[in-house]
Amino acid sequence: MRRTSRIIRILRSPDNPTPVPRTRGTVRAVAAVAAGVLALSLTACGGDDDSGDDDKDGGTEGTGTTVTLPKLDGASLEVAAVWTGAEQANFKKVLAEFEKRTGAKVTFVPAQDPIINFLGSKIAGGAPPDVALLPQPGAIKQAVDKGWAKPLGAEATKELAENYSQGWQDIGKVDGKQYGVYYKAANKSLIWYNTQVFENAGASEPKTWDELLTTAQTVYDSGVTPFSVGGAEGWTLTDWFENVYLSQAGPEKYDQLARHEIKWTDPSVKEALTTLAEIWGKKDYVAGGARGALQTDFPNSVTQTFTGGDQPKAGMVYEGDFAQVNIVQAGAEVGTDAKVFPFPAVGDTAPVVSGGDAAVILEDSEAAQALVTFLASPDAAGIQAKLGGYLSPNRNVPNSAYPNAVQQKMAKALIDAGDDFRFDMSDQAPQAFGGTPGKGEWKALQDFLRNPKDVAGTQAKLEADAAAAYGN
């Protein structure tokens, strides 16, 4: 479940609702996303009956039309994605609606990370899926470069143009041709917490990193481990690093590191890793210790925070809006049992992160083109929006389709961000460095979680792997 490939990076003042952009191209995104995320602070999340009526008035509204699809009786399709659990189950309901409308039969194929390697083995065996959901922008280019991906046809391109901002269209292009439809998005600068734990401890929502450490100590003193970390999946650790690094080092350094224009041995990386170690290296601050965290996958990192009554395995868990699916699986109610605060400011500004997964055609056919056309429509996105744990960059999905005020705020902020995007650092990197289990950044940060004292060694390993992957 590599939930987020494209990451919007925006900065917001922690003390002032007026955002403070640091680079050209972030201004509109800052204003929109900051407003939405600040609104999360949790009247929006606190079980208030006013669950987003203002947002329904101010949010995007549907087109009032239904996408036209061909009759495809007898056609069969396979769709591959690295989605599991409720996320996979909810997407299957979207596919079921496509089957109902067209008569085609669609089979979901569970993929493994890295999905490019998974697809390569399928293609080598002569059995590629018809459509794949690719969770990294570099993966789309790789699929094009390898001759696997097929351009979108006229109907899919038309549907995309009607429903997506130019920026979301452009990130699905390679060499000027449209290959991807960003079906799914996410906000990944959130820390969820068990409200009963916070109430028992007398803890409050922090706005800065220092306040987060104080809150963690308060939770610890109450008898509950502060953090749950899904360290078995390296992408969660890159997200931790990227939030800290962006806020602390600033966007200029962030962009330079993303392009490997500065080395991972740069002092700014040392500072970010040292900051992370204030949590990862603090005795008894991580559920199960480093060993336990490295055996905990993302879904379990969430559910163990919201099971066990007022004595769960941890009081807080970091990750995106999609954690709501796992919170519900744990039997907790978002806005009552589980609340959320924005990732705190480490430096002068706090990061806001969003991302997505793109549908790409591998086996061109009328049925495959129709499915991607459907996924580009508000019809498809609206189905999954109602089920929770999902955000769409489709601007014609009614804001009221989202099931709670938290997601309505996030969705509106995402759409209001318009065309201004900044991409996740690990997803901009060559996949061997930024997106492969057991290699590169994922492995180096897992090793760092195991031994947070080894800042210099971690930097050296990151730089060696980056230099090899980038070729410089």
UniProtKB/TrEMBL annotation:
Q: Where is this region: Disordered?
A: 46-67
Give the signal peptide as a residue range, or say none if absent: 1-46
Enumerate composition-biased segments (Acidic residues).
47-56
Q: Specify the superkingdom.
A: Bacteria
Q: In this entry, which stretches build a coiled coil?
A: none
Keywords assigned by UniProt, alphabetized? Signal, Transport
The similarity annotation says: Belongs to the bacterial solute-binding protein 1 family.
The protein depicted here goes by the name ABC transporter substrate-binding protein
